[in-house]
Amino acid sequence: MKDVDCIFCKIANGEIPSATVYEDEDFRVILDLGPATKGHALVLPKEHWANLFELPDEVAQKGILVAKKVAGKLRDALGCDGFNIVQNNGTAAGQTVFHFHIHLIPRYENDQAGISWTPGTLTEEDKKEILSKMDA
Ligand code: 5GP
Ligand code: ZN
Protein backbone atom coordinates (compact mmCIF):
# COMPACT_ATOMS: atom_id res chain seq x y z
CA MET A 1 0.00 0.00 0.00
CA LYS A 2 1.38 3.41 -1.03
CA ASP A 3 -0.08 6.89 -0.57
CA VAL A 4 0.32 8.99 -3.72
CA ASP A 5 0.52 12.22 -1.70
CA CYS A 6 3.10 10.96 0.80
CA ILE A 7 6.68 12.22 0.45
CA PHE A 8 8.12 9.34 2.51
CA CYS A 9 6.39 6.80 0.21
CA LYS A 10 8.17 8.44 -2.72
CA ILE A 11 11.53 8.57 -0.92
CA ALA A 12 11.26 5.02 0.47
CA ASN A 13 10.47 3.63 -2.99
CA GLY A 14 13.21 5.61 -4.77
CA GLU A 15 10.93 7.98 -6.71
CA ILE A 16 12.62 10.92 -4.96
CA PRO A 17 16.37 10.63 -4.43
CA SER A 18 17.69 10.53 -0.88
CA ALA A 19 20.94 9.97 1.02
CA THR A 20 20.38 6.27 1.65
CA VAL A 21 22.54 4.56 4.28
CA TYR A 22 20.73 1.20 4.18
CA GLU A 23 18.12 -0.50 2.01
CA ASP A 24 16.45 -3.90 1.89
CA GLU A 25 13.23 -5.30 0.42
CA ASP A 26 10.98 -3.67 3.02
CA PHE A 27 12.87 -0.62 4.35
CA ARG A 28 15.03 2.31 3.35
CA VAL A 29 17.08 4.26 5.90
CA ILE A 30 17.91 7.85 4.91
CA LEU A 31 19.73 10.80 6.40
CA ASP A 32 17.32 13.35 7.90
CA LEU A 33 17.37 16.70 6.05
CA GLY A 34 17.03 18.55 9.36
CA PRO A 35 19.32 16.51 11.60
CA ALA A 36 19.29 16.82 15.39
CA THR A 37 22.92 15.66 15.32
CA LYS A 38 25.46 14.45 12.76
CA GLY A 39 24.23 11.13 11.38
CA HIS A 40 20.53 11.53 12.30
CA ALA A 41 18.74 8.97 10.12
CA LEU A 42 15.17 7.80 9.51
CA VAL A 43 14.00 4.19 9.11
CA LEU A 44 11.19 4.18 6.52
CA PRO A 45 9.04 1.17 5.61
CA LYS A 46 8.42 1.02 1.86
CA GLU A 47 4.69 0.50 2.51
CA HIS A 48 2.58 3.35 3.85
CA TRP A 49 1.47 3.13 7.48
CA ALA A 50 0.62 6.41 9.19
CA ASN A 51 1.90 5.53 12.64
CA LEU A 52 2.81 2.79 15.13
CA PHE A 53 -0.81 1.87 15.78
CA GLU A 54 -1.43 1.13 12.08
CA LEU A 55 1.76 -0.85 11.65
CA PRO A 56 1.36 -4.63 11.21
CA ASP A 57 3.29 -6.64 13.82
CA GLU A 58 5.54 -8.17 11.17
CA VAL A 59 6.64 -4.74 9.91
CA ALA A 60 7.19 -3.55 13.50
CA GLN A 61 9.39 -6.57 14.23
CA LYS A 62 11.46 -6.09 11.08
CA GLY A 63 11.65 -2.33 11.69
CA ILE A 64 13.22 -2.58 15.14
CA LEU A 65 15.80 -5.04 13.78
CA VAL A 66 16.67 -2.60 10.98
CA ALA A 67 16.90 0.20 13.56
CA LYS A 68 19.25 -1.90 15.71
CA LYS A 69 21.44 -2.90 12.77
CA VAL A 70 21.79 0.58 11.27
CA ALA A 71 22.25 2.27 14.68
CA GLY A 72 25.20 -0.05 15.27
CA LYS A 73 26.67 0.76 11.86
CA LEU A 74 26.25 4.50 12.43
CA ARG A 75 27.87 4.20 15.86
CA ASP A 76 30.84 2.34 14.39
CA ALA A 77 31.16 4.77 11.47
CA LEU A 78 30.78 8.02 13.40
CA GLY A 79 32.17 7.13 16.81
CA CYS A 80 29.26 8.68 18.69
CA ASP A 81 29.06 8.47 22.48
CA GLY A 82 25.39 7.46 22.82
CA PHE A 83 22.22 6.90 20.84
CA ASN A 84 18.55 7.88 20.98
CA ILE A 85 15.83 5.98 19.16
CA VAL A 86 12.77 8.23 18.82
CA GLN A 87 9.42 7.48 17.23
CA ASN A 88 6.66 10.12 17.18
CA ASN A 89 2.94 9.34 16.82
CA GLY A 90 0.44 12.16 16.32
CA THR A 91 0.81 15.92 16.16
CA ALA A 92 0.75 16.20 19.96
CA ALA A 93 3.84 13.97 20.06
CA GLY A 94 5.70 15.99 17.42
CA GLN A 95 4.93 13.87 14.35
CA THR A 96 5.09 16.03 11.22
CA VAL A 97 5.25 13.38 8.46
CA PHE A 98 2.42 10.89 8.70
CA HIS A 99 4.27 7.88 7.32
CA PHE A 100 5.65 5.72 10.14
CA HIS A 101 9.36 6.27 10.74
CA ILE A 102 11.94 5.63 13.42
CA HIS A 103 14.52 8.33 14.19
CA LEU A 104 18.08 7.11 14.75
CA ILE A 105 19.91 9.91 16.56
CA PRO A 106 23.61 9.55 17.34
CA ARG A 107 24.57 11.47 20.47
CA TYR A 108 27.88 13.16 21.26
CA GLU A 109 29.13 14.42 24.60
CA ASN A 110 28.01 18.06 24.90
CA ASP A 111 25.93 18.06 21.72
CA GLN A 112 23.03 20.49 21.71
CA ALA A 113 20.22 18.07 20.72
CA GLY A 114 17.29 18.77 23.04
CA ILE A 115 15.80 15.34 23.51
CA SER A 116 14.66 15.58 27.12
CA TRP A 117 11.73 16.39 29.40
CA THR A 118 11.23 17.82 32.84
CA PRO A 119 10.33 14.91 35.15
CA GLY A 120 7.04 15.26 37.03
CA THR A 121 5.88 13.15 40.01
CA LEU A 122 3.84 9.97 39.83
CA THR A 123 0.95 10.68 42.20
CA GLU A 124 -0.93 7.93 44.06
CA GLU A 125 -4.11 9.07 42.33
CA ASP A 126 -2.61 8.78 38.83
CA LYS A 127 -0.97 5.48 39.65
CA LYS A 128 -4.27 3.93 40.87
CA GLU A 129 -6.23 5.33 37.92
CA ILE A 130 -3.74 4.14 35.30
CA LEU A 131 -3.29 0.67 36.79
CA SER A 132 -7.06 0.16 37.04
CA LYS A 133 -7.65 1.39 33.47
CA MET A 134 -4.86 -0.88 32.23
CA ASP A 135 -6.35 -3.90 34.05
CA ALA A 136 -2.84 -4.46 35.39
P1 5GP B 1 8.59 13.60 12.67
O1 5GP B 1 8.55 15.02 13.20
O2 5GP B 1 7.39 13.33 11.81
O3 5GP B 1 8.80 12.56 13.73
O4 5GP B 1 9.89 13.54 11.78
C1 5GP B 1 9.93 13.97 10.46
C2 5GP B 1 11.39 14.13 10.10
O5 5GP B 1 11.51 14.08 8.71
C3 5GP B 1 12.02 15.45 10.56
O6 5GP B 1 13.15 15.19 11.36
C4 5GP B 1 12.39 16.15 9.25
O7 5GP B 1 13.60 16.85 9.33
C5 5GP B 1 12.48 15.00 8.28
N1 5GP B 1 12.12 15.29 6.90
C6 5GP B 1 11.00 15.92 6.48
N2 5GP B 1 10.96 15.96 5.12
C7 5GP B 1 12.07 15.30 4.70
C8 5GP B 1 12.58 15.01 3.38
O8 5GP B 1 12.01 15.34 2.35
N3 5GP B 1 13.75 14.31 3.33
C9 5GP B 1 14.42 13.93 4.47
N4 5GP B 1 15.57 13.24 4.29
N5 5GP B 1 13.98 14.20 5.71
C10 5GP B 1 12.81 14.89 5.82
ZN1 ZN C 1 3.78 7.06 2.91
From TrEMBL:
It comes from the Bacteria. The active site is at H101. GO terms for molecular function: catalytic activity. A motif (Histidine triad motif) lies at residues 99-103. Residues 7-114 form the HIT domain. Pfam families: HIT (PF01230). GO terms for biological process: nucleotide metabolic process. Signal peptide: none annotated. This is HIT family protein. The lineage of its organism: Bacteria, Bacillati, Bacillota, Clostridia, Lachnospirales.
